[in-house]
Amino acid sequence: MFDIDFFKQAQSIKDRIISGEATRADVLAIEQELDGLRAKSPHVFNVETTNHCNMTCVMCPRTTLMTRENQWIDKEAFENILDQMAPHKEEDLNDFWKFIKETYGITFEYRSENAFYFYIVSRCLILHGYGEPLVDKNIVERVQACTDRNIPTYFSCVPANLSVKRAEEVMKAGLSVLKFSMDGLTNEQQKSVRGRLNDFDKSYQTMLDVIEMREKKGYKTLIVPTMIALSEDDDTKEMHQKFLDMWKGYDVFAYVKSQDNRWYFEDDDEMDNNSHYQEQYCEYPWSSMTVMADGSVVPCTQDYNCEMKLGDIHDNSLQEIWNGDAYEKFRHWHITGNFPEGHKCATRCDQVKLFNRLKDK
User: Fold this and answer.
1) Is the full-model pTM beyond 0.70?
2) Rounded to 5 degrees, what are φ and ψ at 313?
3) What single DSSP character describes residue 259?
């Protein structure tokens, strides 16, 4: 989840920045205003319960660049994180969703990556990072621990790793959202993107069986089939439409998503990025934090090697980290553009940064 109050309250300064009214001469004032708007208690966007993965995805830097040790987050550390969190109140979410609809015209009914982000991710703790959550031997217990604290949960998985039994276990534990990642409509296409352990035929049947099981058992888990857009040629666009058509008549939230990590992999450099933030700038330094499997706190989900580590949950509370010197410097860099040489945000990230939107006076 992310700070929905910050997102609403920062709209005024965001408008000034994007319109060019705020300039590089206003850096100090911008810094002070944003710091005043951000919550002093952090919102946790996601917890990477494991970075183990049995796939070799072409679009994931984990496949060739991740050097950190494979591990699972320990139970005590995970529950310590949960005990420092609080879910959004229903009335606050409804106010936020009304704001999104009125300000951006984005509705839940129109299935898109931005609708998924604003209407689903906004309320959920994400339980995946650079690992496959179904490889986490404790994933059911982790979902249950969140449910016991009224924290909605979501994770994305490769359906080749899923079984109906496993799906029922996480649904029974209270999983709010289960997203399936597909990349092709044939076994060959699937394997070409995520490796030899992936497939289409068996995975698709499993997904249908899981949907049927959910209906029979009465579970409330939202099922989200998604396909990442790796190209925009005519054949791929046709495949995207076939993918969306496959889910007509089913009670699911199916959509096609823009590719993340385009700095690392891009099959088609003419592709559009449809993310809401592409037209604005990255707000993660002020809206949320991410916790990795070893307890490292990083600013967002894109830090595959924890090179932007801003704290450790074993050493400090989330609030101490969020309000600490390392985070303060990090936010300052996003406003001024004065990142240390080789910093990931400046050299290996697709998101537009705030300083990119500031014009010279």
Assistant:
1) yes
2) -65, -15
3) P
